[in-house]
Design brief:
about 200 residues, mainly beta, six-stranded parallel β-sheet
Length: about 200
């Protein structure tokens, strides 16, 4: 998933996977990021984001893709899993290393991430026919100047049916911590009525 120049992007319960590099030989090819934000603001709730694996290289193995990479803008994530892709295999008889694993979450210098109750995992390093394995990716990689805040709170869950008819009951499930305040807003008319 690629987000560019979009500042109101929301994903709930989504699964995102970066492409797996499939070329063989030279040059080594990096796997894709599960989510890449080149400019924008993105919120994720209960999502799974995984980078793709690097290719099998004739010399070096390809690098694993990052789970999510934020270049410019911001990311808010709650209850999500970010995992880097596995590095590719180096199949040359020379002692070349396997590809390094991707980072679970990569935040560049002009970006920020606000994180609540997530799991971040670096991808495994790739193997090698005659050389050392690749280095595992980092759980979170942040460049100088980046802002990464891991909030101590547990995630909150609010779940309700997306559509109900007039005068029908609606079930609402809320999960939180002791002492949380809950507000439920209601209206007597629809906030949006499509023009016919």
């Amino acid at each position: 998933v690629h987000v560019s120049a979009s500042f109101r992007v929301l994903f709930v319960g989504s699964s995102m996977r970066g492409w797996t590099a499939t070329s063989t030989g030279l040059p080594d090819e990096k796997g894709g990021s599960g989510l890449e934000v080149t400019s924008g603001a993105v919120a994720l709730y209960d999502c799974s984001v995984q980078g793709g694996a690097g290719n099998t290289g004739f010399f070096y193995g390809g690098l694993g893709g990052d789970g999510a990479r934020v270049v410019l803008g911001g990311l808010f994530a709650s209850g999500c899993t970010f995992e880097g892709g596995k590095g590719g295999f180096a199949e040359d008889f020379l002692p070349a290393p396997g590809g390094d694993g991707g980072n679970g979450l990569r935040i560049e210098s002009s970006a920020q991430a606000q994180l609540v109750d997530n799991v971040t995992l670096g991808g495994a390093g790739g193997g090698s026919f005659a050389g050392p394995p690749g280095i595992p990716g980092l759980a979170i990689s942040s460049a100088a100047g980046a802002t990464v805040v891991q909030h101590a709170a547990a995630k909150r869950v609010y779940d309700a049916a997306p559509i109900v008819g007039d005068a029908q009951a609606i079930d609402i499930a809320v999960t939180g911590a002791v002492g949380d305040a809950l507000s439920l807003l209601r209206g007597l008319q629809a906030a949006y009525t499509p023009q016919v």
